Amino acid sequence: MATLAELAALRTDLDDPSIDHLLRLVASWSLLADLAFSDMLLMAKVNEDGRDDEHFVVLGQMRPNNRTTLINDDLVGTTHRVDSWLLVRDAFRRGARVVGELAIEHVSELVPVWCVPVRFKGVVVAVLVRLQGPLRGSASLYEQSYLSVFRRLCDMVADATFPYREDTVAGPGLPRVGDGVILMDELGRVEFATPNAVNALHRLGIYTAVEGRSFADVGLKARAIERSLEFGIPSLEEVDRGHDVAILFHGVPLMAVGQVTGVLTLVRDVSDIRQLNRMVLNKEAAVREVHHRVKNNLQTISSLLRLQARRSEEVETRIALHEAERRVRSIAVVHEVLSREPGEEVVFDEIVRSLVLLVEDTVLALHPVEIVVNGELGVLSTDLATPLAVALAELLTNAVEHAFTDFGDDDEHVGVVTLNLYQEDGQAIAEIRDNGRGLGENFSLDVPTSLGLSIVRDLIRAQLYGEIEMKTVPLSDGGGTFVRVSVPLTARL
User: I want to staple 206 with a disulfide (CB 3.0 to 4.6 A). Which of 17, 43, 201, 314 is the partner?
Assistant: First the structure.
């Protein structure tokens, strides 16, 4: 399905500023549909072979939330002959609102229609079509008030003061007509308020009648409404009463001849949403604290291992303790990242940067070695990130410590360990390549000669259900060792 911008660019001769104006309109026109209890269409002239008066194209369609839709089909992108929409043609030609009836496909009776010209920079660029469905008997006081506001907004559409340049007045998270409506005059005095709006005011502790009075008169401070009255721009404000009550006010200024003639205030009780947000934030804070404490405990264990290694006289014992300390620190790196952004997923690239620094700080190599990282793995689940981080730390350490043992300090050979990271076919891929001496002739990963490689093999194959490959690179290709780790990104059973 093509977007409005794509349809307008392909089927009409509208320029970019005019298309942007129509985009702002359709971002806000759910307010119009709800106030009119009607379906809305946005129609523009089709530019075919230089003829602008032969067909209309539907650029947008909106259904009301408070009334059954009249048109079940999706008409966006469809083309219609002018003789089927003569009222739309008249609105284009006159540049004024045209009211009448039209025969609509699949509707047995003639449909009352309003055709409102959408003007931009003095030119009618489209027509807003209101298709009115059957009313439920006589209109109530509130329905009459809604329709009155709708007429005022239609006048604003015709003189290009609606939609507003500053912001949309309908969209995700913003109050809707069904949430609550308060209509004010040009002095900020309440003309009428719906029951839902009155209930919201009661939640704020305002029980006096508000009709004929301003918010200031009843003790309510709402700067958003004052801004809408003073500057003629839509404003949004959340008013709290303690920790349990939060009411969202959205001021929509009503204009006529460049002057503010009133404000349509949309009201929504967001107390439950704010309470839920606080609960989520508290939970995130608790999870963050848990990861922070785990990280601190792991660092404490790491420090104890390091102290014990210093006190040990046996060389093999010191080496084993240092290796254990490094493995504990590699796990702590994951919890350190999770303590900043708790959740079931983690940005693995932050862990990789910390792992590289860890290896560079803890490994003592006789030959200068540089670690280069290319690519990224993005966001990974925590149950994948932790064992993968330990495995990569072991592989990097193994490459730095053992790949260049035959090179001395005065050797001109530059030791380079490259870590390539990427995702492919649902797999997380890590490739480690060094330009060192390569593996021994009898090397086998199934019978590893070190505890580190045993840990890596078991983590990759048994815990992550992945694959690991290690081989010596031929001298013709630069020599060294190549390691490829591949683990599935999907959940493991």
Answer: 201
Query: For 34-55, what is each residue's pLDDT tens digit?
Result: 999 999 999 999 985 555 567 8
Residue 472's DSSP bridge partners are 481
314 and 402 housed in the same domain? no
* CATH assignment of the domain containing 425: 3.30.565.10
Which residue in 23, 59, 269 sits closest to 168, CA to CA?
A: 23
The size of the chain, in residues, is 493
Considering the domain boundaries, does residue 171 fall inside one? no
The residue out of 233, 249, 269 marking a domain boundary is: 269
Residues 6+ apart with CB under 8 A from 187: 214
Residues of the chain with pLDDT under 50: 493
Q: What are phi and psi of 23, to 5 degrees?
A: -65, -40
> What's the pLDDT at 26?
92
CA pair distance 318, 320, nearest whole angstrom: 5
Other residues' Cβ atoms within 10 Å of the Cβ of residue 300: 12
Interacting residues of 167 by C-beta distance below 8 A, sequence separation 6+? 233, 234, 236
- The whole-number pLDDT of residue 59 equals 95
Of the candidates 441, 434, 484, 438, the residue with the CA atom closest to the CA atom of residue 460: 484
The three-state (H, E, C) secondary structure of the chain, written as one string:
CCCHHHHHHHHCCCCHHHHHHHHHHHHHCHHHHHHHCEEEEEEEECCECCECCCEEEEEEEECCCCCCCCCCCCCCCCEEEHHHCHHHHHHHHHCCCEEEEECCCCCCCCEEEEEEEEEECCEEEEEEEEEECCCCCCCCHHHHHHHHHHHHHHHHHHCCCCCCCCCCCCCCCCCCHHHCEEEEECCCCEEEECHHHHHHHHHCCCCCCCECCCCHHHCCCCHHHHHHHHHCCCEEEEEEECCCEEEEEEEEEEEECCEEEEEEEEEEECHHHHHHHHHHHHHHHHHHHHHHHHHHHHHHHHHHHHHHHHHCCCHHHHHHHHHHHHHHHHHHHHHHHHHHCCCCEEEHHHHHHHHHHHHHHHCCCCCCEEEEEEECCCEEEHHHHHHHHHHHHHHHHHHHHHCCCCCCCCCCCCEEEEEEEEEECCEEEEEEEECCCCCCCCCCCCCCCCHHHHHHHHHHHHHCCCEEEEEECCHHHCCCEEEEEEEECCCCC
Q: Which residues are CB-contacts of 90 (< 8 A; sequence separation ≥ 6)?
A: 98, 115
Q: How many domains does the chain contain in total?
A: 4
pLDDT at position 278: 66
- Domain limits at 396? 344-493
